[in-house]
Amino acid sequence: MGDGRLEAADQPNRSTFLETNNPLGQRYTVTFNEACDLHDAGYSGAKVIDPINGGTIDYYTWTQKMVDDKFLAEMRKLCQTQIPASARIAEKDCEATGGYTSLVAETRYNFVRSQGYHFYRARPNLRGTWTGGGVTMQITQDLRSISGKPQVGDVHGEFRGTLISRDQDSLIEGFAHTSANATFKSINIVVDPDTPDQLRFTGSPISGTLTR
Question: What is the pTM of this model?
Fold first, then answer.
């Protein structure tokens, strides 16, 4: 194809560019996997290693717009690092819309800006009173820090945990004890975004499902 545009896209997150109008000219292939993986993590609110910029990044407080803008900047950075500076036509196509049929930096960005709301996950809000199976628990939350005070009849307890964002749901890993047994025991809570008013407890001394 002419004008230095897309020549092939044999993988969803990979595009290949020509530097000249000559179909036999030099091709440059850019892989966007790292940027796409970080974008997925951003939509779920995860804390992950950032292979593009180094270190770790916690997306928990990020809005969809913030995640999308980072996605665009990182795709452009991958264009610049995987295409030599001498190939200016190919690099500029990669950073922009890439012609008429390619899915490159701005093309992907425009898509997530218009359709990403279908996939961006609201961060769990667990504050409130939860009950189930004879258990009552008042939960407070400070970002990823979760604490609760369970009560079963006259038996009181304490729970502390950390919220971990995962691909399909969130997990709270923590410890709990009761006034009947002062030893802290491991306990996990699964938070399903499709049922935000249900918490599934696994472990001891609390198990089962609580609702708000």
Answer: 0.84
